[in-house]
Amino acid sequence: MPPRTVTFRAATAAAVIALGATLLAASPQAGAAAAEPAPVTDYCQGQCDDILPPGENGNATLVEILGNKAFGTHPAHSDDQLDRYNGLVAGHTGLTDQKLTEFFNDASFGVPKDQVESVTSPRDDVTITRDKASGVPHIKGTTRYGTEFGAGFAAGQDRLWLMDLFRHIGRGELTSFAGGALANQGLEQQFWPQAPYTEADLEAQVEYIRTHEGARGEQAMADAQAYVDGINAYRDKSKNGRYFPGEYVLTGKIDAITNVGEIQPFKLTDLISIASVVGGQFGGGGGGEVTAALSLLAAQQKYGVAEGTRVWESFRQREDPEAVLTVHDGTSFPYAGKPDKARGTALPDSGSVTAEPLIHDRTGSAGTDRKTPVEAPAALKKAQGIYDDGVIPEGSLPGSGSGAQRRGMSNALLVSGEHTASGNPIAVFGPQTGYFAPQLMMLQELQGPGISARGVSFAGVGMYIQMGRGQDYAWSATSAAQDITDTYAVDLCEPDGSTPTKDSTHYLYRGTCTAMETLERTNSWTPTVADSTAKGSYRMQVRRTNYGIVTHRATVGGKPVAYTSLRSTYRHEADSIIGFQMLNDPSYVTDAASFQQAASHIDYAFNWFYADSRTAAFYNSGMNPVRAADVDPALPVRAERAYEWQGYDPAANTAAYTPFAEHPHSSGQDYYISWNNKQAKGYAAAGFGLSAVHRGDLLDQRVSKLVEQGGVTRASLTRAMAEAAVTDLRGEQLLPELLKVIRSQPVTDPELNSAVQQLESWRAAGSQRRESSPGSHAYTHADAVRIMDAWWPKLVEAEFRPGLGDDLYGALTAGLATDESPAASHGPSGAHSGSAFQYGWWGFVDKDLRQVLGRPVKGPLARTYCGGGDASACRDALLASLKQAVAEPATAVYPGDDNCKAGEQWCTDSIVHRPLGGIAQKAIHWQNRPTYQQVVEFPAHR
To answer: Is 180 helix (H, G, I), strand (E, B) or coil?
Structure first.
């Protein structure tokens, strides 16, 4: 039995008893109405608000899709939260508590009678009430089964097509389902290798939860089955009633005239598949050790082993003393740090690394974007080609797209009661999950036996609220990305004892030559009305070992190895359901301590935040494996028993995990901020980028100032968030140092002096990317913003490339891109994605310039790079790069795309809700802000 399971049973025995027969007696046959449950008391008393643009309704019939394409009309509640969300850009400066509902929904429990829009009862034991304002489903059940059935039914009403897409993405079958567009090919090629499973693997995960997690595990799977039953009930009704999503017609699944065709039934294993996509992208962490090893080798080749390692470590910044922290009271939580003397590190021989091939047996349009449009009926012409660029355009999902890295997003601001006007904690928090139409998440309220919450759930796994509020508490999360993924170098072998090569398909496992397991997906597609991509097919193949999935081949010390990626949550994609079940259970979460215990049962890497009327709190969740002593988690390690995770059993991918007390956590700190920054001292960064300047500084400096002043309100904390959301990190944090170097001597070139003055004016005004007036679509300091956008990548290269050399500079930028401005299409989820400034060379530039200026630097870079450390030469390099930037026209800085013409600055920054179905939405002003967001202040408690 894995240690985590032992901990679970010990920690929750009392809660399991409290569940009692009420929860466990529910069954699919329990359809008769039960006694009306006692009314739920809403302790937020009108002080809980939320928002999730563009709108709750994510399903559109064929007629509605064609109306949108022909006339721009929208189905009810598909866009009614968009303007309120967008309005905060202009409205935050005059925001008061009374005005919050101009920009947010009232997130109170229930629906007043005069606000009821519709009531549906898919069974006798559940009602789905939708409100007039936003169409959010308020699901109230008299039995546990009925409640969860209602949740599934409502999910079908609001996200049926989206759920179908994501179960096929998770299974690596997107092109066969939705078409062979090049972006679809790319998407399944990036997601499926991260979580490749057979159907038996998926079924085993269902059974593992049911049999290893006690009474809560049994209940969770019963809830999940009820949820699936509800989805399927809506699937049948909508198909028979001909009001199913129109995308099924446009992709050739159902005939619009005869209604012949089928929406495949959902099953429990689909939920595991969807969870693998959601959890893997937003709750993963670590990995990338091969890329890190290549940059280390480049440093060693340039400077020698000792000095090269010192230089590399100064860029790696595992434990930067200047990094902004969530737990800032000095408490340390050591994990995944650099050992004094590492054992088992397996660096590749120079030039030996090759990526494991994924795609085989291409035919037709595979690997191309060749189109052969079908002859669409006249009535469908307006919707022809809606998926020619893919159902999810390339780069739109975090961690997808060419050269993308997995990104964790979201932010949180919490202030404890001693610093608020009311004396109660205040929280403004939510996840940044990209912008889609419909959103990946959906709003809902769940009220039933053992469940009482309102908030968001990812479509397809919405048995419980994943972020939201309970009766007297609220919670949210940000992606944590601590190191729960390692890379192993497995020695290759041949079963007959002959000499292995890099292409060998056997490896040594604990002394035995063992065959790699081959997992495959063969996909094929033909053109449809929605996707004109020509007929094609290919086969995806991955090799699985007891140490994870093969990602690369190389030699180490002249001997062939395969590098594998082992993630602690692999084969445990949905185990986190236990933690979410607890968070929704009002009998379990009664205070900050019980919240932290609930969050500790979530296996993915997240930072969890909590607020009730008394306490603000934080807990970092994740299946943090206990590594062998002196193993360096930042680099590949030899696949030998001495270097395995402690207690490792490959059969179900279990190991020993760090206990509750070793995860960063805190309760009652003066304030908390998180924007995917470093959690606490000692908690080593899993990758590059957690340095002296981070977008978390935009929050920390504002919230700390509010706390110092005292009397914080919901409005003032929201204003702090909203101001940070339109601020350019480079302008606020780095421009002062850049200008200090440049202004160290008079700027004699008139054109450059004018540019410097424009940058100074922009910095003095707050370094914002904000319209001059609502609807102007022009920034107040448009020229300064353009100069910065053009200058930043040039100045980074001018500052570092001469000293590092081409090879090392290239290797380091492969591990950490230099820029993620709103206009950068290589950002965390592609262009028009809102989220910006997460990872970049901000901290490197900051430390290097302070070293040039002779200012104090904690955790300095091993060398000073700008101008070779000479202030005058550094100034010359910066001015030369600035001159290049000034000369670059707006049409080059903002080259244009499908949404914007070349040179359109505001449009290039703007947020575009990427259509996952047939309904498109208008672009809105850029904001670096959670997609779903809560503003909460509880004045009372049970």
So the answer is: coil
What letter would DSSP give residue 744? T
pLDDT at 830: 65
| CA trace torsion 504, 510, 515, 516 (10° rounding) | -80
**SS3 letters across 285-318:** ECCCHHHHHHHHHHHHHHHCHHHHHHHHHHHHCC
Write out the H or E segment, with its range, that includes residue 322.
Answer: none
- Among residues 397, 440, 393, 401, the alpha carbon closest in space to that of 181 is found at 393
The tokens of 775 are what? 């609807």
CB contact set of 415 (below 8 Å; sequence gap of 6+) = 425, 426, 427, 616, 670, 671, 703, 706, 707, 712, 717
**In what helix (H) or strand (E) does residue 612 lie, and over which residues does it extend?**
strand 606-612
Taken in order 122, 127, 131, 137, the sign of the CA dihedral is: negative
- Confidence at residue 787, expressed as pLDDT on a 0 to 100 scale: 98
Calculate ∠ Cα 57-59-63, nearest 5°. 120
Dump pLDDT digits (tens) for 609-622.
Answer: 999 999 999 999 99
CA distance 134 to 128: 14
The 10s digit of each residue's pLDDT in 297-306 is 999 999 999 9
Distance of CA 673 to the CA centre of its chain: 17
Rounded to whole angstroms, how far apart are CA atoms 78 and 101? 19
The answer on pLDDT for 396 being more than 70 is no
Sequence-ordered strand ranges (E) for 100-183:
105-106, 116-123, 126-131, 137-141
Helices (H), 72-123: 82-91
Contact 555, 352 (CB under 8 A): yes
**CA dihedral angle for residue 546, residue 550, residue 551, residue 552, rounded to 10 degrees:** 110
Q: Which of 270-284, 465-479, 625-639 has the lowest mean pLDDT?
A: 270-284
Burial of 195 (0-12, 13-18, 19+ CB in 10 A): buried
